[in-house]
Write a structure and sequence with these properties.
Glutamine Phosphoribosylpyrophosphate, subunit 1, domain 1, Rossmann fold, 25 strands, 27% strand, 471 residues, alpha+beta, 2 domains
Length: 471
């Protein structure tokens, strides 16, 4: 999947959502529909919903945004008191209908559907073993490995099939699984990808982020723990640990960029963490300036924090158009570039003749940052100082984030001064790794692999050379 030229940002692979209602006559597909809307930021290439009625699973999915894939008629066709949904960006496997989720399998003992956010680092090995045993695959997504493993082990019973499957896979995952009479959730032993439990009148919710629970009128209960399996059925909620205690390594980019600011992940308020990161950056790298502005959307809370810490007035400065659309579908390179160029615009009156500090969440390729510096200068900014609320991104992610090859990461092999000159800024500074951890509560428990090259899970050498995440 090509890098997202529109944002010049890493992309999280997926969002998952599931609902189980204790009333068997209740239809919950519309709840999943609204839950996926609130997770649209996690995946904008495809969407799907699977629902179960009298132990029969029906699925509707397609390419595009949630509102493009589903309409009143298609939602009405999905009957059932339990359902799961998925929004996807591709990081492994082409952006095609065959790779959309949820995956559904019908076999002699029943039916199951699976939605997966994350990356399996041993997917190729397991796929080969399953194919040797006669299993068939219809996609190139590593997520299909999971559903084939569950189906293979299903004769042992649901719990044993799930635990055997989960113990076989390696990497990062937040899973929602739908069976004829249960909704299941699981989170990898390091807790790299987020997953939470919610409750609503008459049932239970599993979601990638707490904002999706809020969106459907539910109440947040707790995060699914790393290495925890949750089974929800008519008897209630049961929890099983499936792995030995493993050091927590939640993805730090969830807080820097991916998650919605109104979410809470593992007890950390995302909006608050971004404000704290800005305050810490203001202490670590102050600049004599007249105005601090944030790059919408995730840079705005950090800019507020930076302004508080440095005593610099905060202003809007940059406007982001929300209606440009997905520039990768523009019919020509010229139109794609034009769409990118109107994604951000400057409020000239706000920045003219001022020394401006620009706060962004990250710099990956550098194209967006370079363009922002240029348009600020054209708007009359006297000085442009760039501050970044993540350390330099020097390494690819292998656990469910779409990042460019190492050679395309502008911070890889370049000094901060070389980067400053390349961007055309008057000064440039990144938050330190210690400062980032301080913004997340001051302890450990977070994956910083894309900054440090030190990963919580061993990565096979041949996979590491690919230089991208996997989904």
């Amino acid at each position: 999947m090509p890098w997202d030229a529109e944002e010049d940002k890493p992309r999280d692979a997926c969002g998952v959502f599931g609902v189980f209602c204790t009333d068997p006559e209740q239809d919950v597909a519309s709840l999943v529909y609204y839950g996926l809307f609130s997770l649209q930021h996690r995946g904008q290439e495809s969407a799907g919903i699977a629902a179960v009625k009298q132990e029969t699973i029906e699925c509707r999915k397609g390419m595009g945004l949630v509102g493009e894939v589903f309409h009143a008629g298609s939602i009405a066709q999905l009957k059932g008191s339990a359902a799961i949904g998925h929004v996807r960006y591709s990081t492994m496997g082409a952006s095609t209908l065959e790779n959309t989720q949820p995956f559904v399998s019908h076999f002699k003992l029943g039916s199951i559907a699976v939605g997966h956010n994350g990356t399996l680092t041993n997917a190729d090995v397991i796929r080969e073993l399953l194919e040797d045993a006669g299993a068939g695959f219809t996609s190139s997504s590593d997520s299909e490995v999971i559903i084939n493993l569950i189906a293979k082990n299903y004769k042992k019973g649901l719990e044993k099939a799930l635990t055997d499957t989960i113990k076989s896979i390696k990497g990062s995952y937040a899973l929602v699984v739908l069976t004829g009479d249960a909704l299941v959730g699981a989170r990898d032993p390091n807790g790299i990808r987020p997953l939470c439990l919610g409750q609503y009148e008459g049932g239970w919710i599993l979601a990638s982020e707490s904002c999706a629970v809020d969106a459907v009128g539910g109440s947040f209960v707790r995060d699914i723990e790393p290495g925890e399996l949750i089974i929800i059925n008519a008897g209630g909620v049961r929890s099983f640990p499936f792995s030995e205690k493993t050091p927590r390594a939640g993805c730090s980019f969830e807080y820097i960029y991916f998650a919605r600011p109104d979410s809470v992940i593992d007890g950390i308020d995302v909006y608050g963490s971004r404000v704290r990161a800005g305050e810490i950056l203001g202490r670590e790298a102050p600049a004599a300036a007249d105005l601090v502005i944030g790059v919408p959307d995730s840079g705005v809370p950090a800019a507020i924090g930076y302004g508080r810490a440095s005593g610099t007035p905060y202003g809007q400065g940059i406007v982001k158009s929300k209606y440009v659309g997905r520039t990768f579908i523009a019919p020509s390179q010229e139109l794609r570039e034009k769409a990118v160029s109107v994604k951000h615009n400057v409020i000239h009156q706000e920045v003219r003749d001022k020394r401006v500090v620009v706060i962004d969440d990250s710099i990956v390729r550098g194209t967006t940052s370079r363009r922002l510096v240029s348009i600020l200068r054209k708007a009359g900014a006297r000085e442009v100082h760039f501050r970044v609320c993540s350390p330099p991104v020097r390494c690819p992610c292998y656990f469910g984030i779409d990042t460019p090859h190492r050679r395309d990461l502008i911070s890889n092999g370049s000094s901060v001064e070389e980067l400053r000159a390349s961007l055309g800024a008057d000064s440039l500074a990144f938050i330190s790794a210690r400062g980032l951890l301080e913004s997340l509560g001051g302890g450990g428990g977070y994956c910083l692999g894309c900054f440090t090259g030190e990963y919580p899970i061993p990565v096979p050498g041949e996979y590491r050379e690919q230089g991208t995440g996997n989904q």
